[in-house]
Amino acid sequence: MTDPASPAASDTDDLTDRLRKAGFRITRPRQIILSIIASQAGHPDARDIFQEAVKQDARISLATVYRTMKLLEDEGVIQRHAFEGGPARFEAAEGDHHDHLIDIETGAVVEFTSERIEALQEEIADRLGYEIVHHRLELYGRRKNT
Amino acid sequence: MTDPASPAASDTDDLTDRLRKAGFRITRPRQIILSIIASQAGHPDARDIFQEAVKQDARISLATVYRTMKLLEDEGVIQRHAFEGGPARFEAAEGDHHDHLIDIETGAVVEFTSERIEALQEEIADRLGYEIVHHRLELYGRRKNT
DNA sequence: ATGATATTGAGAACTGTTTGCAATAAGGTC
DNA sequence: GACCTTATTGCAAACAGTTCTCAATATCAT
């Protein structure tokens, strides 16, 4: 079973293996949803994913999308973001942590990282007697007319 | 009108004047809600405020609480926070900006400020070609057993 | 006191999400 | 491949938080 030398057919195949090993059944809805979040670049919400999924199998339900997102979140496959005034949006968890800048005009999301901010957060929490479990840094702004 | 020397009778009275001058009617529900957010220390949600209000006037409705919170937010009297997985929570806007650390066990909110983080945020947004309209920094953590 | 109209209360409507349940279908076993 | 156990699905109803509709009421200028 453990065959690290074999070239991964695709990320999606890796994922299905991982999920199967975790005891989950790889159902048709799940395959479809996995392929969607693998291809989809941005930060789609449940409805976006549902609409894509329906194209591939008309009988998939929104409830299944939500259930699958929950499962994938628990498994660390995706991350859920609750930006202001809107539905939760999802993003493939590709290792690296990052924060978000949301364009308040278009809803577009720009990702960024800052070691220094991270460090300062730790410092602050520490000073207050807390250890950070997770955090959320969102900048809401509009594009400058340069 | 501008009379900075006169001792303010109370914050609430100042506020009602301000709102009246802005063209709003100072109704009983509004008076009650104002007094609640003036006294209430923490970060109550709409239901908390509603429950307090009902004690003073049993016929106040939750809808009115929501409407009033919206009004007060628009007027800059309060700030609305949407912490993870829960209803919006409100806080009197007392000038100074601050961020929040939320105790994931108790829901308690600790406020903090960091000039340095603020500065870094500006720097990042600037580099990305954006100007920050507002932002949100929330640390979710648990108390350290010192 | 009176009138114009902003505001209210009550409940329906709405959005986003979760859940109960019977029907379906994975995937291990023979 | 057929069979069986049980995880998973689809559907609809339930749910939480919030907003809206609309007739009734109350505020404030006159």
From TrEMBL, chains A, B:
Q: Which cofactor does it need?
A: Mn(2+); Fe(2+)
Subcellular location field: Cytoplasm
* UniProt-annotated binding residues for Fe cation: 97, 99, 118, 135
GO biological processes: negative regulation of DNA-templated transcription; regulation of secondary metabolite biosynthetic process
Listed GO CC annotations: cytosol
Keyword list (alphabetical) reads: Cytoplasm, DNA-binding, Iron, Metal-binding, Repressor, Transcription, Transcription regulation, Zinc
Gene3D superfamilies the UniProt entry points to: 3.30.1490.190, Winged helix-like DNA-binding domain superfamily/Winged helix DNA-binding domain
Q: Does the keyword Iron apply?
A: yes
Q: Which residues form the signal peptide?
A: none
| InterPro entries on file | FUR, Fur_C, WH-like_DNA-bd_sf, WH_DNA-bd_sf
The question of whether Cytoplasm is a record keyword is answered with: yes
Cofactor binding comment, as recorded: Binds 1 Mn(2+) or Fe(2+) ion per subunit.
Output the Gene Ontology terms for molecular function: DNA-binding transcription factor activity; transcription cis-regulatory region binding; zinc ion binding
On assembly, the entry states: Homodimer.
User: What does the similarity note say?
Assistant: Belongs to the Fur family.
Q: What is this protein called?
A: Ferric uptake regulation protein
> What is the native source organism of this protein?
Oceanomicrobium pacificus
